[in-house]
Design brief:
Elements lengths: L16 E2 L29 E6 L2 E6 L4 E5 L9 E4 L9 E4 L5 E5 L2 E5 L9 E4 L9 E5 L2 E6 L4 E5 L9 E4 L2 H4 L11 H4 L5 H6 L2 E13 L5 E13 L1 H4 L7 E2 L6 H15 L20 E11 L3 E12 L2 E12 L7 E2 L7
Length: 346
């Protein structure tokens, strides 16, 4: 089988950025973007890839520190998840070859291992100059195939270090231009592991302010107000727990199922809107399971004024995923105009 290559509060800190305009329902309006979201292309990822050999297919997600193995991506069969050794993270290309070895290509060299979760028997070799800078790497039977799109050719060798038994041919125009590709659907449990896939299953990410409490002074004198404000803070586990049902985790996945789910969520939220994300870095928020938190607030309320308290939350589709820890307040019914979390790095 061909082996495919593997895709007033702490809130007002300097990293805050503008959000959408205020809306009558107390939520910041989300920018109008297309509802069709895509999977992040390989050209925009590093350390994420497909590969496969014999009865197994793999999705390598080295950004999450793990890889997924399955016998059928379409039906989501036999979903086993293994930890990823640090030495094989961040590869440009991943190959599973017929000799029961994995090849991890990084720059002008490759690392060969028998198990992506270990490094005890690794061998590092330099790619022959004729095998360097390929756009795609595949393997089938005893051969390695390297596609050079700009040159319009592919090269077939039996050894990428020595460039043994080379054969080079022109790509068919339909292959070069990706014309008439075949499309195969992924099971939802598999799709979650692809960057952008969670937005297809659950809907695009959002970040909005929700109202928590309104305090009013309807008299003609100032009033000293002091009270405990209670809000939920943390990860809404019940909304996303179902995605873990089809998983079988190896002990090499040290974060556990719940920790892996949180990593997938932060990765989805991190993406741009084009891929169903919100372009927000949420990894430093409180991702422990949601709980009620009480905060004592006191101030002098001027005559005939209202103070509106708000909390920022993140979610996917229609589901709340994370209640952020900071509160903000406004003197009108419009939500704050800043985002209390740092933007995703470019």
């Amino acid at each position: 089988m061909a082996a495919q290559s593997c895709l007033q509060s702490r809130a007002q800190r300097s990293s805050a950025r503008p959000s959408g305009a205020g809306a009558p329902n107390g939520r910041a309006e989300l920018p109008a973007i297309p509802e069709v979201h895509g999977i992040l292309p390989k050209s925009k990822t590093k350390g994420i890839d497909f590969c496969g050999v014999d009865e197994y297919y793999y999705i390598v997600c080295s950004d999450l520190g793990c890889y997924l193995r399955s016998t059928d991506f379409h039906q989501g069969k036999d979903l086993d998840i293994f930890g990823h050794h640090n030495s094989v993270r961040g590869g440009d290309h991943y190959l599973a070859h017929s000799d029961d070895l994995f090849y991890v290509i990084k720059g002008d060299s490759y690392r060969r291992v028998t198990d992506l979760s270990k490094d005890s028997d690794s061998v590092v070799s330099t790619l022959h100059h004729n095998c360097q800078n390929g756009d795609h790497y595949f393997s089938h039977d005893k051969y390695f195939y390297i596609i050079f799109k700009k040159k319009g050719v592919y090269r077939r060798v039996t050894n990428m270090h020595e460039d043994l038994n080379p054969v080079q041919n022109a790509l068919h125009p339909k292959v070069k231009d990706d014309a008439n590709p075949s499309t195969f659907s992924f099971h939802a449990s598999v799709l979650n592991f692809l960057p952008g896939g969670m937005s297809i299953n659950y809907g695009k990410a959002f970040g909005v302010w929700q109202p928590v409490k309104t305090v009013s002074n309807n008299v003609k004198v100032s009033v000293v107000w002091e009270q405990q404000i209670v809000s939920k803070v943390g990860y809404v586990k019940k909304e996303m727990h179902s995605m873990e049902h089809n998983w079988k985790l190896s002990s090499t996945v040290t974060v556990g199922a719940s920790g892996l789910t949180k990593l997938l969520l932060t990765a989805q939220i991190f993406l741009t809107a084009e891929y169903g994300g919100e372009k927000i870095d949420s990894k430093d928020e409180t991702w422990s399971e949601e709980t009620d938190v009480s905060e004592k607030v006191g101030f002098t309320l001027p005559p005939n004024t209202n103070i509106h308290f708000w909390q920022y939350k993140l979610g996917l589709g229609k589901d709340d995923v994370l209640y952020c820890r900071d509160l903000a307040f406004t003197d009108n019914s419009n939500p704050p105009t800043f985002v209390p979390l740092p933007p995703a790095a470019a």
